[in-house]
Amino acid sequence: MAGIISVFDTTLRDGTQGEGISLSAEDKIKIAQKLDALGVRYIEGGNPGSNGKDMEFFKRAGRLGLNARLTAFGSTRRKDSSAEKDASLLSILEAKVPTASLVGKSWDFHVHTALQTTLEENLAMIADSIRFLKRAGMEVSFDAEHFFDGFKHNRDYALSVLRTAAEAGADWLVLCDTNGGTMPGEVQQIVSAAAELSVPIGIHTHNDCELAVANALSAVQAGARMVQGTINGYGERCGNANLCSVLPNLQLKLGFACLPEGNLKHLAATARYVSEIANAHMPLNQPYVGGSAFAHKGGIHVSAILKDSKTYEHVEPESVGNKRRVLVSELAGQSNVLFKAQELGLNLDLENAGTQATIARIKELEHQGYQFEGADASLELLLRQASGEVTEVFSIESFKLLVEKVGDHSIASEAIVKVRVDGETVYTAAEGNGPVNALDNALRKALMKSYPALRDMHLSDYKVRVINEKDATAAKVRVLVESSDLSHSWSTVGVSENVIEASWQALLDSIRFALIGQQPVPGKSEDSQERVGIVNL
After folding, report:
1. Is-above-0.85 flag for pTM?
2. Across residues 94-99, what is the average pLDDT?
């Protein structure tokens, strides 16, 4: 190993300053436990002096018995006052945490403009505050705000800030690229200069130039041994250094020890968990942990990874807790379809005319607007048909929708489904809070007595995408339906110029997929009007 890196997670503090990110005290508790399980060294829980929610978090988190060191954030004392009477410092003591993260100015421009005080008084503020917390027995990480800008503007003063913090007893000197405008080469040179001090160096970078990860890596290579960042890169403006990229880069590429042995494989699950709690979209193309990080679409690529995954993957997906995915689309070759079939345990003969017809069918459907990348269940049904595993035992003859609105009352929807099964024509009707819901209810009502497991299935997401916007209200649409049961979820797709028809296609596939491997309950219902067949999978 090249060395040990102390991972300082500030998702619960700096991450919450990102637009659209708001965490309750309970949310913070859940995320803190997940971060602790991942194995980060420090968890910065917030600023106890700024709001009651953060203080509540610290009081509750202190009873969790975390392995990570809980850290409270605060500022140096106010100018021309004393540390003993400073509200921010007193709140840090009240939080009863082992570590404090104390921010102070290191750019002379900020001292004069933001603090409106002298350079000497700023140094006194830093020294007094650190000594106050050290006398209380705390570990102190000093965050030198705007350090890189300050160094470039007045090198001597920026370094004097670090020396003052070190002499006052700071355990870490964290160099902050607060504006996120420093280049990686500059970071390496400046960190090298600061690393000559006797106190360990940390790095805190922002992503305003999309260089936060690169700058964090440069700092480590120059001697920094603490890396601060957030899960998924959440943070103010363009965000903070994304630990989901920093950690695997340091550990897998550069040989540093960041997390306890074996814990890196929990990274992808942690990233998804935090995004769910924060109610924030997690980009598919996020490196290492995103859903598309190890997704392969081009036929040449897939053909190669079937021989050896190293041909198009720089690390093994499992090393960060992710998985390999092969996408089937109009760009797909036979290798893509073969890979998906192998994943499903299906025996597909690529020389078989039926298999070739299925491949051609998939390409044609994609050309029409279907997208199987996000609808694996619909794709699986097509592949099962190609392998001969599907036997149709019913056909949909028609469906009708009645939609009525009277006065100011809400719209009422009713669906009537007509199917042909076992030589009989069967009708089923149901109401819903919309036409799609009514169709869903009608089909379920017909199937429930034969397949009671459908009671545990529900539609969990529904998306409509206009494919050709220029046609306005006559445009073709693609509907993606996500369904779930007690153990897993799956997605299906439908395409049509009529949103109801597209929804119906996706709903049919969703139910067909749900019934894979299930057998109908023996015996016929006494009420034949409530019994409908389904594809026997």
Report:
1. no
2. 98
- Helices 212-221 and 184-194, interaxial angle, to 10°? 40
Report the amino acid identity of residue 146: H
Structure tokens at 95: 């939080």
Half-sphere exposure of 224 (CA within 13 A, CB side): 27
- The conformation of residue 496, written as its DSSP 8-state character, comes to E
| Beta carbons of 240 and 212 less than 8 angstroms apart | yes
- CA 199/CA 24 separation, integer angstroms: 35
* Domains in the chain, CATH or no CATH each: 3-277 (3.20.20.70), 295-386 (no CATH), 394-530 (3.30.160.270)
Query: Quick one: which of 429, 446, 445, 457 has its CA closest to 516?
Result: 457
- The burial of 112, by beta-carbon neighbours within 10 Å (0-12 exposed, 13-18 middle, 19 or more buried), is given as middle
Phi then psi dihedrals of residue 201, to 5 deg: -100, 140
Q: What is the pLDDT of residues 434-489, one digit of tens each?
A: 888 899 888 888 777 777 888 888 888 888 888 765 655 567 888 989 888 877 88
| 3-class secondary structure, 175 | strand
Does 324 have pLDDT greater than 90? Answer: no
What is the SS3 assignment for 325? strand
Tell me the C-alpha distance between 291 and 172, whole Å.
Answer: 36
Give the integer Cα–Cα distance in Å for 305 and 107.
51
Tell me how far apart the alpha carbons of residues 290 and 278 are, in angstroms, rounded to a whole number. Answer: 16
Bridge partners, 413 (sequence order): 403, 432
- Integer angstrom CA distances of residue 401 from 37, 188, 323, 435, 502: 51, 67, 42, 7, 14
DSSP secondary structure, 68-88, as one string: SEEEEEEEPPPTTS-GGG-HH
CB 327 within 8 A of CB 372: yes
Selection from 165, 159, 182 nearest residue 241 by Cα: 182
Calpha distance 220→69 (Å, rounded):
21
Alpha helices in 108-242 (DSSP H): 108-110, 119-135, 147-153, 155-168, 184-194, 212-221
d(CA 424, CA 15): 61
* Backbone phi, psi, residue 43, to 5°: -125, 110
Residue 248: name the closest of 264, 232, 268 by CA: 264
What's the one-letter identity of residue 77? R
| CA torsion, ordered 188, 191, 193, 194, to nearest 10 deg | 180
Q: Containing H/E element for 3?
A: strand 3-4
Q: ∠ CA(192), CA(197), CA(201), 5° rounding?
A: 65
Backbone dihedral angles phi then psi of residue 479, each to the nearest 5 degrees:
-110, 125
Instruction: Tell me if residue 395 falls in helix, strand or coil.
Output: strand
**Contact yes or no for 257/1 (Cβ under 8 A):** yes
| Cα-to-chain-centroid distance, residue 46 | 21
Residues contacting 80, CB < 8 A, separation 6+: 117, 121
